[in-house]
């Protein structure tokens, strides 16, 4: 997905500055201590579906329910009174996400706006006007006996669904939301359509992986859930092709609109729907001709029924109505998630705390050290630097490094090495050919750059990654009008230099493709090494790390993977 095409829908707000002296906006009044501790939700037993609502907002809802005397429980739990869903959710999709054939007896399916109003008015308000329409077929019916189930036409199918479905989890206490960017341990659930599943995305299927990385979906004969088989040819793998030969997108009028929705779902934390749109966009961009009908769209691997319907709507009207209903929160979430150190979860948390501008964040939000630096340099970090400025930054780091040891190798990676005209940041990789002299250079180099006044802020001052050391910080070249720029300095042993250079050069899509190809060959590729004879279990988890192959140069990595060598400029996928 081209992020540039997505971000056009949410232009950077470069006129909003985190100026502590600005008082343009009044502070949001804080709730008095002790207010809202009554148990006026004691009759509420609710389940909140995070899809569409967003994980952070759903967690805040759950916390408020418990705080005011209510209970949070699974949708399948006895006595559940309300199932809270996103405003745009329909009954069919809600039940599919919940893996329920019908709505539980006595439960109401309500929009999240109802719960918001309850919390605002501090009472259980009437659900009239907030209920989701429920067709009769989804209302709970009397349960059949085992004999009836076995004799009924759908008995076997129902039994199979029961066996395959996980048991309902117990009613759980709600803890405060985790720090925004902590990795979720929630197990991803497989979806049944292009917009399904709630929960955090922790893995994708083998088919999704191959489609997003190699550019093709496996045929039905290749199986489902099996390790990705080695391709017969390499012509479908991104890492085997020069980026100059990217396929022509014959459907930009469709993909541009879908990219807006993909970005909206992403910043709202709905990763599964964002993934569904990414799959469809990738499939459309790879299709060999303009799509002209529902049947043609639906026939493309990676595009489901509902996505095909959206494509036809665009074909028929030139517009997608869903774009008219994007939440007002999306541009604000985009604004907040552009703060370095804040992702979608933190952005959602700030939004639901009532913040709407960068001034709100500066004056009222509790920030980590990294987020405070990201806010301070918000505009500078978003402004891509010209290639010439990146060259000056590299030269500054090189001069300081070689003043400490003239034999050090210093290479700027990333988009700079791929030949891009502008760069978002600068990644400088350092090593020494003797395999020893890189040791101890890391802290000395940082001290030297600080003494010169070149480094202005430390984001992650030291991140040990095996034998590699990585610094993430902020620099500024001398002279008036110079901007603060993001700088990463990575020191690696010479034996890992080729794999590290490959990794930090990118692009990310190209790297994922190479790693996936290595996996099909029983190998493993990382920024440290290329290993062979790697053993993985049936879930693809590595159980034996294998043997490290010697890779003195990048060309050796390509050769060992049976790939034609690609210059950095040909890896810009």
TrEMBL record:
<keyword id="KW-0237">DNA synthesis</keyword>
<dbReference type="GO" id="GO:0006260">
    <property type="term" value="P:DNA replication"/>
</dbReference>
<dbReference type="GO" id="GO:0003887">
    <property type="term" value="F:DNA-directed DNA polymerase activity"/>
</dbReference>
<dbReference type="InterPro" id="IPR001357">
    <property type="entry name" value="BRCT_dom"/>
</dbReference>
<dbReference type="InterPro" id="IPR022312">
    <property type="entry name" value="DNA_pol_X"/>
</dbReference>
<keyword id="KW-0479">Metal-binding</keyword>
<dbReference type="GO" id="GO:0005634">
    <property type="term" value="C:nucleus"/>
</dbReference>
<dbReference type="InterPro" id="IPR043519">
    <property type="entry name" value="NT_sf"/>
</dbReference>
<dbReference type="InterPro" id="IPR002008">
    <property type="entry name" value="DNA_pol_X_beta-like"/>
</dbReference>
<dbReference type="InterPro" id="IPR028207">
    <property type="entry name" value="DNA_pol_B_palm_palm"/>
</dbReference>
<feature type="region of interest" description="Disordered">
    <location>
        <begin position="144"/>
        <end position="203"/>
    </location>
</feature>
<keyword id="KW-0464">Manganese</keyword>
<keyword id="KW-0456">Lyase</keyword>
<keyword id="KW-0239">DNA-directed DNA polymerase</keyword>
<dbReference type="InterPro" id="IPR037160">
    <property type="entry name" value="DNA_Pol_thumb_sf"/>
</dbReference>
<dbReference type="InterPro" id="IPR019843">
    <property type="entry name" value="DNA_pol-X_BS"/>
</dbReference>
<keyword id="KW-0539">Nucleus</keyword>
<dbReference type="InterPro" id="IPR029398">
    <property type="entry name" value="PolB_thumb"/>
</dbReference>
<dbReference type="InterPro" id="IPR027421">
    <property type="entry name" value="DNA_pol_lamdba_lyase_dom_sf"/>
</dbReference>
<dbReference type="InterPro" id="IPR010996">
    <property type="entry name" value="HHH_MUS81"/>
</dbReference>
<comment type="function">
    <text>DNA polymerase that functions in several pathways of DNA repair. Involved in base excision repair (BER) responsible for repair of lesions that give rise to abasic (AP) sites in DNA. Also contributes to DNA double-strand break repair by non-homologous end joining and homologous recombination. Has both template-dependent and template-independent (terminal transferase) DNA polymerase activities. Has also a 5'-deoxyribose-5-phosphate lyase (dRP lyase) activity.</text>
</comment>
<dbReference type="InterPro" id="IPR018944">
    <property type="entry name" value="DNA_pol_lambd_fingers_domain"/>
</dbReference>
<keyword id="KW-0548">Nucleotidyltransferase</keyword>
<dbReference type="InterPro" id="IPR036420">
    <property type="entry name" value="BRCT_dom_sf"/>
</dbReference>
<comment type="subunit">
    <text>Interacts with PCNA. Interacts with PAXX; promoting POLL recruitment to double-strand breaks (DSBs) and stimulation of the end-filling activity of POLL. Interacts with XRCC4; promoting POLL recruitment to double-strand breaks (DSBs) and stimulation of the end-filling activity of POLL. Interacts with NHEJ1/XLF; promoting POLL recruitment to double-strand breaks (DSBs) and stimulation of the end-filling activity of POLL.</text>
</comment>
<keyword id="KW-0234">DNA repair</keyword>
<dbReference type="Pfam" id="PF14792">
    <property type="entry name" value="DNA_pol_B_palm"/>
</dbReference>
<keyword id="KW-0227">DNA damage</keyword>
<dbReference type="GO" id="GO:0016829">
    <property type="term" value="F:lyase activity"/>
</dbReference>
<dbReference type="GO" id="GO:0006303">
    <property type="term" value="P:double-strand break repair via nonhomologous end joining"/>
</dbReference>
<dbReference type="Pfam" id="PF14791">
    <property type="entry name" value="DNA_pol_B_thumb"/>
</dbReference>
<keyword id="KW-0235">DNA replication</keyword>
<dbReference type="Pfam" id="PF10391">
    <property type="entry name" value="DNA_pol_lambd_f"/>
</dbReference>
<feature type="compositionally biased region" description="Pro residues">
    <location>
        <begin position="165"/>
        <end position="176"/>
    </location>
</feature>
<dbReference type="Pfam" id="PF14716">
    <property type="entry name" value="HHH_8"/>
</dbReference>
<dbReference type="GO" id="GO:0003677">
    <property type="term" value="F:DNA binding"/>
</dbReference>
<comment type="function">
    <text>DNA polymerase that functions in several pathways of DNA repair. Involved in base excision repair (BER) responsible for repair of lesions that give rise to abasic (AP) sites in DNA. Also contributes to DNA double-strand break repair by non-homologous end joining and homologous recombination. Has both template-dependent and template-independent (terminal transferase) DNA polymerase activities. Also has a 5'-deoxyribose-5-phosphate lyase (dRP lyase) activity.</text>
</comment>
<dbReference type="GO" id="GO:0046872">
    <property type="term" value="F:metal ion binding"/>
</dbReference>
<feature type="compositionally biased region" description="Acidic residues">
    <location>
        <begin position="192"/>
        <end position="201"/>
    </location>
</feature>
<keyword id="KW-0808">Transferase</keyword>
<keyword id="KW-0238">DNA-binding</keyword>
<dbReference type="InterPro" id="IPR002054">
    <property type="entry name" value="DNA-dir_DNA_pol_X"/>
</dbReference>
